[in-house]
Structures are given as C-alpha cells and as structure tokens.
Amino acid sequence: MDCDKILQKDGGTLLTGLRCFSLPLILDCGQAFRWSENADGSWSGVAMGRELSLKQDGDTIFFKDTSPEEVQDIWIKYFDLDRDYTAICESFSADESLKTACSEYPGIRILKQDEWETLCSFIISQNNNIPRIKGIIERLCESFGERLPGGGYSFPSAEKLAPLEPEDLAPLRAGFRNKYIIDAARKVAGGEVDLSALKSAEDDEVRESLLKIKGVGAKVAECTLLFGFGRVDAFPIDVWVRRVVGELYPDGLPACTDGVRGIAQQYLFHWRRHLEEDENKMQADILCAAEIEKYLTKARKGNITVFDTVDSTNTVLKNLCAEGKARPGDCVTADCQTKGRGRRGRRFESEKGVGIYLSFLLGTGSATPEEISEITAWGAVAVRRATEKVCHADSRIKWVNDIVCGRMKICGILTEMTAAGPVMGIGINVNQTKDGFPPELRNIASSLRIVCKREFCRAQIIAAVIEELDLITESFPEKREEYLKEYRENCAVTGEDISIERGGEIKKGRAVGIAPNFGLEVIFENGEREIITGGEVSVKGFYPTNRVGIE
C-alpha cells in the first residue's frame, strides 16, 4: 500500500507516509467532476454515494469525520492506494518524455469510481470543458439525486433516470447529450448493459457492451474502463493524447507502459497540456483588426477599428455616429479603456490586455421604439452564444444586461441610442486572474479564464461576438420569438428572490418569468404582480450590488 499508517485522529482519520500522491493533481485532472478545492486548501466532494472532506499536508492526508474502517473499506480502493505507483513511475523513467512528465507532475493516480457515474459523466463530457461538465453534473444530482446528510446530493441511479424522457433533462442544459443519458440509463437499468456482470468480464467484452449505448464511442468507453472499472491498461484518446502520441510515439507507446497504459496516459496528458498552455501564454495576445478578421467565418460589410487605449469605446463610436462616419455593423474595440462606464455613469475596471471592451452599431430597420427598447436583451443572448461557442462557458443571463457564470459576473452590456442607431457597449472579463481584480470585487466578478481554467484568444471571442451582433442586425425584430425563448431558457433570475429599488423605494418579491417584452415578471410580497422594465434589481446570492463592470 502506498501509505504507512491509518490512524484515528480528531474525529477523523489520518493516513501517513503517502507516496506518489498529490490531491490537487488527482482531483483536478479531468477524471472526476464532483470535487472542489476550498479556500484553506482542503477538498470537498461527493463520491461513492458519500460526502467527503479531506486535506493533504506533505505525505499525510486527513479525512474529516471519517472512520478508519470507512477509509480502509472505501477510500483506499477509491484512491488506488493498493497499487505501487512509485514503482510504476520508476519504470516510466526508461522513457525520457514519461520521465519528465512524472517528475514535473508527481502524484497523479487513477481513481476507482462508481461504474454508472463514470459512464454517465463521460457521456456528458463529450465536446465539453471541465467547468461546464461539473455544472451539468451538479444540476443532474440536485434534480434527480438523493439529499445527503451534509446537504449534498448523490448521483442519480440508472433506475431513477430510465423512466424519464430527454426533454425532462432540459434544466441540465446538456443539449444533445440528454438523449444519450436516457438511453444509457434505460440500457443499464434494463440489464442490456449489465455493469455488475461486466466487473468480471474481459476488457474487450466491456467495450463491446458499452458501445451498445447511443452516444458512447471509443473515447467514452475507454474512459469508463479506466476510471470506472479500474482497467489501468485502457487508453482513452482525445485531441491532446492524439497529438502527444503522434508527436512522441508514432510507432506506439514504449514497452515500459505495458499493462498500465492508462496511467501513462494521465501523466502524458497532463504534462503536454500544461506545456502547450505555458507556451501559448508566452505569445502576446495582440489585438488588431487583422487578427480579429482571421476568425470571422463569413464576409461582412462593417468596419472593425482597434485602439490601444481609449476613454470609452462607446464614446468613440457615438462620436463617429455624430460625424456621420459610422454605419450599422461598425465595431470599435480597444486593448484598454480609461473611462469605461455603465448605467447611471458608473465606472468599471478595465485592465489592459486581458479583457474585451467593444462597442457595436446595430441596425434596427423599421423597428418601433418599443421594439428597440428590447435590444439590450437581444445583445445578452448574442454574447452568451458567442462565449458558449468559443469557450464552452456555462453562462446565464442575469436580467437584464449581465452575463454570469455560477453567481459571478463576467460581462455587462450598455446600450445607448444615437441618430444612427443603438450603440451597444460590451465588456467581457476574459483572461483576468482572481488577483487581477480589486479586493472589493474578488467575490463578485470572475473571468472566462477563472471559470474555464485556461486562457483564451480575445480576437477569437470578439469575432464570435461580432458575428452574433451581425445576426441581430439582419433579423431584428423579426426573430424576437427565437431570442425571447433563448433568453427565458437561460435567465438566471427566474425563480429567485429579488429586491427592486425605484425612486429610493425598495420592494421585495420573487421573479417568476420573463414577459413578452423581455421585462421581468415579479410577484411582490404583498401579492401584487408587475412586469419590471427598469430599476435596480438585486438577487440574493448574486453579487451584492449592481456596481461591477458595465451595467
């Protein structure tokens, strides 16, 4: 066993003498999706139907509120501590690339997870990123799992999901994956894919059985074999692994990986992914019109103007409109703003080189003033679409003009009217780190980098935003039902308790829906029902005030 002693201590259990064990690398390397790191460096999660909190300190790890018997019976197996990873990594040293991977990222281990949860989780993982996968799984457990004593939720069984229809999973926001989850649940619950019997089957038999499920291809099957069934010679191949194998092992993996190719895969995957990310960080994120245009997928008429620093992109574009030098589709963006502002003239942070500060002149055709008043909501849908497309960010819209991930703000939108049409200002936090925000904003604002755990090319995101705004110009207001439906589906405020400030008066109520005019439908504490189209809206649990970014 890759530890020396199991000791009872302070109401929990202490493992000492750990070898080849790094809790952050194990729990945050893409093989499990229900763990999160706490501010004190401990980790909390739900696994094997149990809630667990644990913390590593050097070669010891403390399991809070956990008996030695439970650690011995469940968690030793879960963390694969009966396997000698020290010897495995020593054998890997026969290959220079593997030797480097093991030395730079020591302590990765393969978790032995529940077979059904693993299968379902990797079905969800397809064409997805880790933060979004975690969000979908969290919503799946909260919606259909059992409440646990500590307040968490168990992973729902196949039997619980099998009677459902794909549309019943719409709140998960898993898209095309819903039908695959239901098919998997029905085949497992009905015995066509007998996970219990497959525990003793040969690897090829397990693969053949898993491939009967719709949406399960070679990668999902291999991931289930490796992380669920504990078959450490299984070898999942994704874009990163394919690249590594193609570059380093065109003739196949070295002999030192025989029988443990899955363990080798994790080390190689982690090493090469981080190596490439580090290389990309060294390349300057240069913002220029040519770089943005490189990512456009179709020809367009509007001009793109890029500044190093401006006071406000909205001010620049409005001035161009006043001078008759702007037309619908024209876009102004900058690497930095010195006087960015939102609603009611509020200032917002504009760090150079990490965010997107963009203004766009929209065309509204013959739309009425009432229809034009809805265009900020259309813009929120457009920005959400763009960030979803490029970043796979699990984002939602906080009525009326903010984009949030979780309950943290990543984007704000401000629309100002000109004689030439609406000028829409958009501010997106892209590559900011937590320390890059002022202390007073760190619990309020977030960025795509923080949420998705990688840096992004701003030019690519800007191009996606421009194309979505072009679509608004082409379809406004004819496609309002399409945008209204999408706004309703992705509104983060519906069902939440809110406070509304108008004229110095604060009223409390509950948001119950989005009206046909994109107004917020509210039932107040006195029972009155009203459609809100303006005023300060504060939502419990979101950022405490509406004073962050563009509003």
Report what the structure shows:
The protein contains 20 helices and 18 strands. It is an alpha+beta fold. It has 4 domains: 5-82, TATA-Binding Protein (2-Layer Sandwich); 115-280, Endonuclease III, domain 1, CATH 1.10.340; 289-489, Bira Bifunctional Protein, Domain 2 (BirA Bifunctional Protein, domain 2, 2-Layer Sandwich), CATH 3.30.930; 497-539, SH3 type barrels, CATH 2.30.30. The strands form 3 sheets. It has a 7-stranded mixed β-sheet, with helices on both faces. It has a 6-stranded antiparallel β-sheet with strand order 1-2-6-5-4-3. A 5-stranded antiparallel β-sheet has the order 17-16-15-14-18. Strand 3 and strand 4 form a beta hairpin. The N and C termini lie far apart (56 Å).
Tell me the overall shape: globular
User: What is the CATH fold-level name of the largest domain?
Assistant: BirA Bifunctional Protein, domain 2
CATH superfamily of the largest domain: Bira Bifunctional Protein, Domain 2
Specify the biggest β-sheet: 7 strands, mixed
> What is the tally of helical segments?
20
Helix content: 25-40%
Low-pLDDT segments, ≥5 res: 544-551
CATH C-level name of the largest domain: Alpha Beta
User: Can you list the strand order of the major beta sheet?
Assistant: 7-8-9-13-12-11-10
Structural class: alpha+beta
What is Rg? Answer: 26 Å
For this entry, what is the oligomeric state of its chains? single chain
* CATH architecture designation of the largest domain: 2-Layer Sandwich
Q: What portion of residues belong to β-strands?
A: 15-25%
- Count of the separate structural domains: 4
Mean pLDDT score: 90
State the separation between the terminal residues, measured CA to CA: 56 Å
By DSSP, the count of extended strands is 18
